[in-house]
Amino acid sequence: MKASYKWLKEFVDFNLPPDKLAHTLTMAGLEVEEIEEFEGDTIFDIGITPNRPDCLSIRGIAREISAVLEIPFKDITVKIGAEEGEGPAVEIESPELCPRYSSRIIRGVKPGPSPEWLSKRLESCGIRPASNIVDITNYVLLELGQPMHAFDLDKLTGGRIVVRQAAGVEKFRTLDGEERKLPAEALLIWDAEKPVAIAGVMGGRNTEVSESTLNILLESAYFKPSLVRRTSRALSLSTESSYRFERGVDIEAVTLALDRAAQLIVQTAGGRVTRMTDNYPEPFERGKIRVSFKKISSVIGVDIDGAFVEKTLGNLGFRVEREGEGIAAVPPGYRTDMEMDVDIIEEVARLYGYDRIPSTLPTMQMSSPPEHETQELIKTLKNSMVKSGFSEVINFSFLNPDALEKLNLPPDDKRRDIIHIRNPLRKEESAMRTTLIPALLNNIALNLNRGEKMLRFFEVSRVFLPSGGKLPDEITQFAAVYHKDVTASIWQDKHDGFYDLKGTVENLFLELKIKRYSFERGASPVEPYLHPGKSCSIVIEGRKTGSLGTLHPGVARAFDIKGDVIILEIHDIEKIREAVPARITYVPLPRYPYVERDIAIIVSKDTTVAQAEKIIRGTDTDIIESVKLFDIYTGKPIPEDKKSLAFSIRYRSAVKTLTDSEVDAVHSAIIKSLEAELGAELRS
Amino acid sequence: MTPRPSITLWKWSKKGMLNDIESIKNLAQDDIARAGSLKDINDLKAKYLGRKGLLTRKFSSLGSIPREDRPRVGRILNEAKDFIESLLKKQEDIFRSSELDKSLRTQQIDVTVPGCFIPAGHLHPVTRVLDEISAIFVSLGFTVEEGPEVELDYYNFEALNFPKDHPARDMQDTFFISDDVVLRTHTSSVQVRVMEKNSPPLRVIAPGKVYRCDADVSHIPMFHQLEGFMVDRHIRFSDLKGVLELLIHRVFGRDTSLRFRPSFFPFTEPSAEIDISCVICSGAGCHVCGGTGWIEILGAGMINPRVYEKAGYDPELYTGFAFGLGIERVAMLKYGIDDIRLFPENDKRFLEQF
Question: What ipTM goes with this model?
């Protein structure tokens, strides 16, 4: 809402320069967002909160200034001269949608340009002047906050007004020339035959005031706010008028505005005014709001004097009666936001000044807080990833549905069951994500594109999967992506990045004390977007919990990524939490020394380390403490279809020092098993 | 104990013997002081303590001393031997360590070669700020609660006293999933969910993602908020001021001033917006604060009784406050970030600064 400094001054004789006035308004809850100069005047752009429609006018803001500064309010005086003839015939079919409709006819007007003072006023408040009659309606809207409309009386069939819902009328051409599709419930103003305005939103082209207009019908009404809002939204048409009606105009000031406009029209465009038709079947009544001084002080936190309360509310236009140690206050009609005691308390606090209220700290009894193990786990997990060199990213929860194609997801994949946003900003953000992977791949692509190397990112965020109920299941997932820098560097390692990320996961599990996990390859690829030969499931305590693998080169291409990306995904952070042991149990330190023996075997190339290790560990003994792979070798002199695996086995007994012959016995049993089960040859 | 009768005899035999020992000691001392290398030390070892060494020979002549004097002279001889050995050892250590030193000096490495390590990663600045603020509230006894991001219209609006078809809803551009399901526009949606499951007293923070249908240079459609609320008997507006002051002072420093302005939120009454003195220009006026010296940072207020009614609390019995804080905004002010769009972009060079 734009408000002119000079115009405000006509209502309150304040003695503050513009910047001080702006500060006063801001600190009273009318935030001055901008101040600009306009031809010797100062214009404030004030953000009026939705609860204060009474301040959507110069008069309303001036009332507020008067109350805050405790300077008398000089209201306008309106005088209609001689009235000539009956007012217009008005029928309201739905009084619940239009509780008040007042009107007058003015005959013999002379449309033309507005006088300069009028044009300037409108311009200063951001409204373009048109011609005198329309300008006056806009002037009154700015001055009193009451939207007005003038019809060309001679274009109103039957010269009468009916307020009625759209009922079957589907199209209507508004003043701006647009043909509008009407919602069925829209409230319309009709003449004897046809609709002539969309109530509270905009008038019709068919009865527009023009240069040749002789007689006008002037409307000032109150329309039900929620209806005006729904209609305005359905039409995607917000006007100065609908903006005020949907917030609520002052129903008691409807006729004041009518008279003010009539008076100004006669002054500037001439004409003779009829009597008023004021259709107001159930005059509005406001109840008392009661509040005790004690409650005011205890909610605000400072002792506030009863006399201050009475005076402040009086200044704000309330009718105040003292009732014992409290008051009963009747708010003025324009304060539609006053409903209960806390509303009164806010008024008192506001005018007392928020800045004068002290700062205290609450006293409260202790209570047992709920335990949030998952929150703690996420913290540990994030810190572990950071230590391993991964940076956290936070991506939008949105998904571009095209990404599902790029990921090669089959038609029956549950991640294709996406939740769409009805009003997305762009297609790229039109659904809620069911997987973290596309966004992480986009992070890789963007950074590669900007010349960055050695990319290690992770994200812990929710995905949204249909639940069958109203709200989706929101599952917290964890995923990481790794794009290894393969350009030469001083400490470069040559191994496949897969093992770096695998190591990161193993280290994470070590930190979380998760012990029973494995990396397993099934018969079919674990994910359609992973390299079928370089990927596996992560299995924790027998449950498939996630996947690890190299991005499928075809998918990498679809995401504009060159080089290998290794991906880690944990499908539900809760599964991890469930595997974290509830407590740590100390195991006594060994009392006897260990014996270490190495073993190198030649096995077929497709034999896995896990297979060999399982056989070693499966030996019937309790002296194998650890089995550690320390070398894999292929090439001469090993035959081409074979490889050599070398393990270091540590033997230790819990009850005695082992002798060579005891270790030898187990060691040769291991060799025998490896030979029998894997066809392994001992490498010499 | 030396037997007394031997004294005279011993005096007699001591002359030559003891004098000899004494002079060998002195001689050794001088020789060792003059030694210039490990080899000299080895030569001196042979000269004095070797098989035919000067002192060794004195040991051999012990047999010629009267039996009763032998222990005494023997002891003196042993003392002399210890003395010379220790001098030799001391000098030998000096030579050895300086020779080791010399050889170590030839084995230099280039200490300016970069170290070998995996550079630590970085937490997203939003996480850093959320963690910092959460820690402050947890230290005050608040618990951390969460709620769904895809939320019922009821919890996001209705229960917070935003009626359908009310202009207050225009304050937040909303993404819709269906007529009654939205992407939550604020973390305030957690309030009634928590109240429904718990009775006062409540001290809760609810951090998380929120969504607004708005994207331009200063808006992103998903960002983070932290909602905080407290409900008990006798919670006052002044308590809200105190708690927020504590928060701002901890996050931005004690020199930061706060300004409470009346405002409007449907779910609080009285409502306030809180400005802090501009952390960039300290209130002098700059482009960040639009020249006003103040930056809007929080929305807050006393919880509206209508919210308690939805939660089934007695509004006559309980009062409380609520506030909401934009995390990206705090991060921008704290770290001097000038473009909110950097947060969801996840450029490595941006992330590495936190």
Answer: 0.91
